[in-house]
Every structure is written in C-alpha cells, then in structure tokens.
C-alpha cells in the first residue's frame, strides 16, 4: 500500500495548507510517526530533502523500514506498530 504522494509533489518545494493532530491510529499515522521521529514532516519532505524516489518499507505491513536523518544517521523500524496509543495525538497530519 503506497501513500498518496505523487512524484511531482515530492520534487517541488510544497508547503502544507493546514495541519491537525491524529485522533486515532492508522497505517498512515504510523508512517507519519516514523517520519516525524526522524525529523521530517512526512514522506514528501523526506523525499525532497534526501533526493530519493522511494522509501524502504516492510513488504508485509507497508510500514517504513529505514529512514536517514538530516545528520545522516539511520533510524531502523520494526515490522510491527511502534506508535503507541498515548503517542498518536502527537502525530501531525499535514494537508496539502
């Protein structure tokens, strides 16, 4: 399951129109949590900053597997959910 980020959007310097906090956990919220832990808004910003076309994901779950931070260290994530219920409200959902 791929996220709805078109190749065009990832290339351009796009700023979100609005932002809200996640109310309940979902696959998308899980991946946003992982990007935000690594210091990015979301997949679009990660691709833009790191100049990559794809993000490594677990084939079983579709969750992000590995992210490179801005200081070039790597974050590695499990196949299972990592964003606990008490963390969900901290996840920022950006609307473009």
UniProtKB/TrEMBL annotation:
One of its GO terms (cellular component) is nucleus. It comes from the Eukaryota. PANTHER family: MEIOSIS EXPRESSED GENE 1 PROTEIN HOMOLOG (PTHR17008:SF1), MEIOSIS-EXPRESSED GENE 1 PROTEIN (PTHR17008). Belongs to the MEIG1 family. Essential for spermiogenesis. This is MEIG1 protein. It comes from Halcyon senegalensis.
